[in-house]
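thread: overnight batch results

M.L. [08:02]
morning all. the overnight job finished for the chain we discussed friday. pasting input first so we're all looking at the same thing
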Amino acid sequence: MSEVNKVRPRTTLDEMDESGELKRKKAAWCNWVEPGSESFPPEKDRYHLYISYACPWAHRCLILLKMKGLEDAIGVSVVHPTWQRTKPEEDEHIGWMFRDPSDPPVSNLNGHGSFPCTYCIPDTVNNAKSIRELYEIAGDKEGKYTVPVLWDKKKKTIVSNESSDIILMFNSAFNSIAKNPDLDLYPEDLRKEIDEVNSWIYPRINDGVYRCGFAQKQDAYEKAFDALFESLDRVEEILSKKRYLVGDRITVADIRLFVTLIRFDPVYVVYFKTDQSRIDDYPNMFNYMKEIYQMPAIKPTVIFPHIKTHYLSSHPKLNYYGIIPKGRKVNLDTPHNRDNMTST
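M.L. [08:03]
and the structure it wrote out:
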């Protein structure tokens, strides 16, 4: 048996400590594409992005790709939202699988539900059937087969699976081949503020919803719950004075927050038990979310069927029958009130 096959596969659900808290481990692949690099220089048609529309970490990468106008330079493949056995003949690992839109619907691991393959985009680079296969091609030794994956077609390996790095690469490394090279979502003069905001939004909100949903003890859940809603109140206060998190310009800080906000009411309130308030209970945050959602490069990246299907069909212990809540109908295309907002 090869060394690759000896790797013990795992998922985020395996990253719990003795107190019942989720302790997410760092990404294993953290190379960088940058101008002048001998290993990973920016080149058209050299790189490919593997994502799930459901995954917020992958979603922010797709948003940056679209906003920067990199669609013709970097290809994209999209997995099916429902986790499946990746190698049922070898182990119990479940994870992301590729499907063609013409394939028949998929059921959850318990055989319940019927989830169509609409919006899926197969892997035309490696013809892989799962994200796991990509990691094995690259010789991964960690065993956590996550998206996003930024893939180097020339070297047939993973450049990065760390979304916070990938969005910064897309922001600046590919400017020579981007359609919108002048758009800077991580400007030098705002980097200190962006990093400071992210230092509490990531653990308390982005990851905070997962720490609520995956908590295995009441104390761990309540600790994450309280931190989450204290931080949402803090965001609401900021947005009462500023159009965006760090001023009058949209930045990566806003994209990082948006991907959590857009999933909050349709999924997290129910599934992760984050039920103290909905986003539309916060007038500033709700209008802020609508403004970002309505941006031409962003709205097409928000695929609610994949978002709801993934969470509600991929964790059999949390939703045995794979029932997808209908939810409330909220029109995110109604006018927002952020145009006249001036930072104070």
